[in-house]
Amino acid sequence: MKVVIIGGSHGGLQAAMTLKKLNSKIEVVLIEKRGELSYISSGIILKMNHLIDELDQARYTTLEQLIFQGVEVLLNTAVTKINSEKKTIICEESDERTIEVNYDKLILATGSNQFSTNMTLPSEDKVTVFKSYPSSVAVLEKLEQAQTISIVGGGYIGVELCDALKDKGKEIHLIESADSLLFRYVGKEISTIIEKKIENAGIHLHLNESVIGFSDIENEPFITKTTNEEIKNDYVVVAVNARPDTTLVKDRLELNANGTIRVDEYMQTSDPDIFAIGDVISYPVHNSYRKSFIPLVNNVVRSATVAAMNILGHSMKYTMTQKTTATKIFGCFIATTGLTEVEAVFEGIDVESIFLTLPCQLPYLELQEEVSIKLVFEKGSHKLIGGQLMSEKDITQSINTLSLAIDKETTLEELVTMDFYFNPAINQPMGIISRAAYEFLIRKYQE
Known about the structure:
- The protein has 447 residues and is of the alpha/beta class.
- It has eleven helices and 25 strands.
- The strands form seven sheets. It has a five-stranded parallel sheet with strand order 3-2-1-7-18. A five-stranded parallel sheet has the order 9-16-10-11-12, covered by helices on one side. A five-stranded antiparallel sheet has the order 21-22-25-24-23.
- A hairpin with a 6-residue loop joins β13 (211-215) and β14.
- α1 runs parallel beside α7.
């Protein structure tokens, strides 16, 4: 069997390595339009936070490792056409030479386009996006040179960039069209804490503002126009609206209303010999009536594993995502899973919630650390549908427990009585999750 994979980022690599691990004799061809693969798009943030020495280190495998595993890799090769009747694809190499590659099974791992907006970006030297390694190199140089920087988008990338730039002696503006930061992941309680930390760091926060254009672009500084004001800046990074890259198949395969490729739970498209994974598909969200475009790497690698297993005849289904995330910004770990209260209302779910800040340790210990925790439950059933954590202590692994609890439809009462460890030098007899659920239970039934 010959499997061809289009796209050499997270999904394509995971699929290729899984196929070769399952069956070393299978022929796997990985085609990537760029000259490099496996670059992690947040490499800029890793570099500015001194977690790596060079941007080029932000990779989790190499060409040599793939070749050693028996994967044939074609770099600088753009797929221009898919002929599903003949099971062939047409590719154009960097020297403009055209080649034809046949396949038995095809995996589409083309990912998402760089961040897009309805605006026309006037100059890549002054207003830009980043995702690939070459664009990240260029953006990092510009960030180091600029004194006044505007960041458009208050999601993870925008907030993480603010954190990485906060001590660089620059004037930073963060522009977000919503009324809170990270609104897709956290409720008002935690977003308010984050916003205060950003403002305390001297960053200018512009909530409820949308960028409508740029002017005086030939000047330094130039003007970023928002719905409320004009901001003078040397450089602008746009960190919003990643979109699925379905150019190759938009007229050949069935698509969803949001532009993603329609797949079943086995990652199979409307063509039984073509599978799609990663950022080109939508995912079923727990407690949601619809599939959603959720460009998170943890979803990407899971979908790639499912596709590889099914191609080799090992039945595996992609079940649900809780869109579980974690980051560290402004000295705090933030982790989220499931639906926020706002999302629950949109899904037609009647919810109730609790937000608490609890000490981790017993009071006799000198070290005292606190965790802010929010739990969202469905009214009536008491099923957990969302959880958010924030602390200077690394609590990120606890979000995996909450994700599993949502997946298993665990109730408030079960969380209170769940078996978690206790060590008098580390925590309290009832863990953070159980204590938050316990406090909520008391409030509900207290007379």
